[in-house]
Amino acid sequence: MTAERLFHSMLAQDARNERRIFWREVSIILVVALLVTAYLLAVSLRLGAPPMLRL
Amino acid sequence: MTSALAVLCLLLVLLGMAPTCASFAQSLIVGLHGIRNHYSESGPGTLRVAFVLPAWNEADVLGASIDALMSIDYPTGAWRLYIVDDASTDHTPEVMRAKVAQYPGSVFHLRRDKGGQGKAHTLNHGIKTILAEDWAEAVMIMDADVLFEALTLRRMVRHLADPKVGGVTAYVKEGSDPGSLLTRFIAFEYITAQAAARRTQNVMGGLACMAGGAQLHSRDNLIAIGGAIDTSTLAEDTYTTFRTQLTGRRVLMDANAIVWAEEPDSLAALWRQRLRWGRGNLQITRAFAALWFRPDRNPLLGNWAFGVLWFSIALMPVFVLAGSIGLVGLYHLWTPWALPTFEVLWGVTFVSYVFQTLFFFAIDPAEAKRSWFGGIAFPGLLSVGVMALALLAPFTDLAGLAAPGRWSWGDILAQVILGWSAISTAAAWGVYRLDKAGGPKWLRNTLLVLVGYGPLLCAIACAAIVAEYRKTDLKWDKTIKTGKARIRAT
Which one of B126, B218, B416, B489 is least enclosed by Cβ atoms within 10 Å? Predict the structure, then answer.
């Protein structure tokens, strides 16, 4: 493989990896946000208000 | 008066949340590296690269590092290796001579007659020789135990096609084989501190540190920063990184350029290494005091975000102590606020822990497969228990378990839980002392899993602050390597 082709193939591979990390992060943010919302909802149902507003 | 003190305690708790919030925010930015990176400005050039490898008593690791370098995918004749022997007293000179003979024209042997002054002096001996000739277009500073993957040099060199870039660093991965609990903690730490944090710093534009084990500089950059590495601090790599950026050149990390290194397998060795790093960072903090939170001085290193991230690590023990004092203080002064504040502090910590652990596994799945337990137990299983308690608190009657002022077991337990951040840091120091005293490894490992690797790093940062305050001798304390590192399939 010529240096030029190797460069472009590496670049494509690495850029793909970075984009993959971006989408993984988006998915994990969504999952964690969903869990946090469910938790806060459960707390609200139990106590009527989020912890800091309970006093 | 009591109310004022209680408000102060609340502020201390907020201060205690700073490192968690800073690292959480930092990890949220990592993914943007997929959109904002330097790849589009890189180019396919093949610069002539001079590797400079400082070696002081490195006979056990040198041969493997040189052999790994000989397997890199880079045109023969376009790179050279200069090994600078810092007056070694072991078999390093023999190993070097053998390698010079084995790879003629590629490996060069330089020797300092007077050694023991530290890595920066040894590097400078090599850099001076390299810059005196006009062959090298770029200089790669590396450590004796570092193993380069085949395409790492190409991945780093491509960024120097952009004349605005002065330096490039790689992702240093823990490569000990066989590994141990401690090296798996370190492996996970390197995902957080390098693969994640440095991607964020790439996005923000300013890098805190080019790893000393793989630091590529353009020739122009090395000359611009004085043609030598700083010898006044214990963090010569960070100093060089700052100087490069202050001369107007960009520094970045290519997270896909990977090198492997052997990391300490005993708490005593880890403590020495990290104490050096911690003290070095405090020296850098002082050396560049005029820069912090002053974007007018330097828009990259002087901006607020960079300053907050820097100080949240350099002064972590101060924040941890503030948070614990704040919570225990609230418990005594304004009891009804103590539990909700505890729930918020540890609840946020839990969210940050879950998100970061999952995400860091996703950044480097191959490493996660090997060091997943290090990731889960990173804050310590007891801390995970405290987080669980904070989450369950709204569903239980924890407030009824203890009341301040009436000394009881419940009361003591409540204060231990509220002050756990600081207590776990002290406990981590205890684990280090146990290991140093020759305590059994199984006990050390069990306690480390319970107390956590994060608190251990915090304890070392605390020791660094104390050592700097006391102005303890600045001694270059080399980390002993035994040649256990291997390149793993990624």
Answer: B489
What's the gap in Å between the CA of B141 and the closest CA on chain A?
23
Interval B412-451: pLDDT, tens: 888 999 999 999 999 999 999 999 999 999 999 999 999 9
Helix, strand, coil content of chain B in percent (nearest 5): 60, 10, 30
Query: How far, CA to CA in Å, does B181 sit from each of B193, B249, B434, B441?
Result: 18, 39, 16, 10
Residue contact A18–B358, C-beta within 8 A: no
What gap in Å lies between CA B289 and CA B266, rounded to an integer? 34
Nearest CA in chain B to A30: B355
In this model, does residue B230 exceed pLDDT 70? yes
Helix (H) or strand (E) holding B62: helix B59-70
Give the helix ranges, DSSP H, for B175-334.
181-190, 197-204, 219-224, 236-246, 267-287, 304-314, 316-333
* Cα gap B35→B42, rounded to integer Å: 15
Q: Can you give the length of chain A in residues?
A: 55
- Predicted-complex ipTM score: 0.90
For residue B137, give Cα distances in angstroms to A3, B214, B218, B337. 18, 16, 6, 62
A11 close contact with B: CB closer than 8 A? yes
Residue B46 contacts A where some CB pair is shorter than 8 Å = yes
Q: Are A46 and B355 an interchain contact pair (Cβ–Cβ within 8 Å)?
A: no
CA B433/CA B439 separation, integer angstroms: 9
- Asked if A34 reaches chain B (Cβ–Cβ under 8 Å), the answer is no
* From B44, B256, B344, residue closest to A17, measured CB to CB: B256
Cα–Cα distance for residue pair B476/B312, rounded to 1 Å:
25
The pair phi, psi for residue B141, each rounded to 5°, is: -90, 125
**Mean pLDDT (whole number) for B447-470:** 96
Which residues of chain B neighbour A22 with C-beta distances below 8 Å? Answer: 31-35
Which residues have C-beta within 8 Å of that of residue B119, sequence separation ≥ 6? B54, B212, B236, B476, B478
